[in-house]
Each structure stands twice: as structure tokens, then as C-alpha cells.
Write a structure and sequence with these properties.
Blueprint (H helix, E strand, L loop, with lengths): L2 E7 L4 H4 L13 H13 L7 E4 L3 H13 L9 E2 L16 H12 L7 H8 L1 H11 L8 H18 L5 E6 L1 H11 L17 E6 L5 E8 L5
Parallel strand pairs: 1-4, 2-3, 2-4
Antiparallel strand pairs: 1-5, 5-6
């Protein structure tokens, strides 16, 4: 049985608002973030889910509970938290200023100082960008392409085991992780260049097939378009 997967990006957080790098580090949802999520929750309130899951980071957990509480047609028990669906890990850059971080990563690619992440990725490609992030990280802890690719595949595998008897599920994850899933599993991505970053509270829909194959079929859909 194939499983329809609704991937929701968490709401806006304090670090999003302050333009700080936010991967495995966490910060609380803002008032705007909560208000925006209410629109997403309302748009999904009549969609039946067999289960809901979440990344194990608090901003995602808070988001999934908003989805759960607003849903009128699903009976969801305890939320299972999945660390495999955490945000991309940025190592020593966690909590730093975003523009300064991208300048350092850009220098590591050899293209010189550039603080626009989209321009960097479109010049060197997403894979080289991941390698440069690890290279620029003083402790070399940031996830590179291989590490992130292995985690994405593990995430899909874990979800496949959990949802064998579930037709439709919702899982709250994170912007860069969802975007990287789309680069890998969405047929409208060429797998090399950047694609638009998903909005806070947006929904990306995937299909997890019986044979374990995963594909993205809708990307970055906002509440008003559902």
C-alpha cells in the first residue's frame, strides 16, 4: 500500500526572524509563526491522517501539535519523534549570523565573498556547497552531501517501516531538509541547482511506494492554495 506523506515546514522561529543559522540548534516559534501555522492547520483540518510524526526538535514538535489539535477528522495518538527528519546540521555555524556564514562558505568554494546562498549554489551546485560548508566549518562538523544523503535515505526507510499500514500521514520537518529531499526526489528538480526554499508552514506532498521508492509530487504549497 502506498502512503501519501504531507511534509509540513515548521512555523517561523526567533532565529528565522533574526537571520541566524538554525539547524540542530533550536529557538521558539514566534507569534507570527504560530498565527501562520493556524492557517495551515485550518487548511488541513478536514484532511484525514492515519498518523502524524515530527522531527525531534522543539519547533517541529510545537508545530505538529498545532496540526493535531486543529484536525477534526483524525484520531491521532502520541506523536512519534523522528531524529532522521531533523534540519540539516551546520556544525560550528549553528546560531551564527546567516550572511557572515554564507560569506565564509562562499570563500571556501573559491568564488570569493558572497552572502546570497542562492547565488552561491547556482554557481557551484548544491553538492559542492555542502562540501564547502563542511570545509569552512572550523570543526568540520557540518553535514556534507554524503552524510545528508545517507540520512535522507534512512529517513525514508524509517518512515516506510512505520507507515506500512497507513494511507496518509503528516510529518513536520524543516526548510533545508525538505528542500534537499525535493532536490533528490522531485522530478522537477535537476538535482544540481537550487530550488526555492519552502515557506514556513508550507506543505510538500510525497508518495512512499510499496517498494520503498519515494517521490515528491507537490512542493511548497501555502495554506491559501490548498
Amino acid at each position: 500500500m502506498a502512503t501519501e506523506v504531507y511534509l509540513v515546514r515548521h512555523g517561523e522561529t526567533m532565529f528565522n526572524q533574526l537571520d541566524k543559522v538554525q539547524g540542530w540548534c533550536d529557538s521558539p516559534l514566534t507569534i507570527k509563526g504560530i498565527d501562520d501555522l493556524k492557517s495551515t492547520a485550518q487548511a488541513l483540518s478536514q484532511v484525514h491522517f492515519d498518523n502524524m510524526y515530527s522531527s525531534d526538535l522543539k519547533r517541529a514538535i510545537d508545530t505538529v501539535h498545532l496540526m493535531k489539535d486543529a484536525n477534526q477528522v483524525s484520531e491521532i495518538g502520541k506523536i512519534k519523534k523522528l531524529p532522521e527528519f531533523r534540519e540539516v546540521f551546520f556544525g560550528s555555524f549553528e546560531g551564527d549570523d546567516i550572511a557572515t556564514t554564507w560569506e565564509q562558505v562562499s570563500e571556501a568554494t573559491g568564488i570569493g565573498p558572497e552572502d546570497d546562498v542562492t547565488k552561491i549554489i547556482n554557481q557551484v551546485g548544491i553538492y559542492e556547497f555542502r562540501e564547502a560548508t563542511k570545509k569552512a566549518d572550523p570543526r568540520h562538523l557540518a553535514e556534507n552531501k554524503r552524510e545528508l544523503d545517507e540520512r535522507m535515505e534512512r529517513a525514508v526507510s524509517v518512515l516506510g517501516e512505520l507507515t506500512k499500514n497507513e494511507q496518509r500521514v503528516l510529518i513536520v520537518s524543516h526548510g533545508d531538509f525538505i528542500k534537499t529531499l525535493a532536490i533528490k526526489y522531485w522530478n522537477q528538480s535537476d538535482g544540481l541547482h537550487d530550488i526555492v526554499f519552502p515557506n514556513n508552514g508550507s506543505v510538500t506532498r510525497g508518495i512512499l511506494h510499496d517498494n520503498g521508492r519515494f517521490e515528491i509530487v507537490d512542493y511548497n504549497v501555502n495554506a491559501e492554495d490548498m
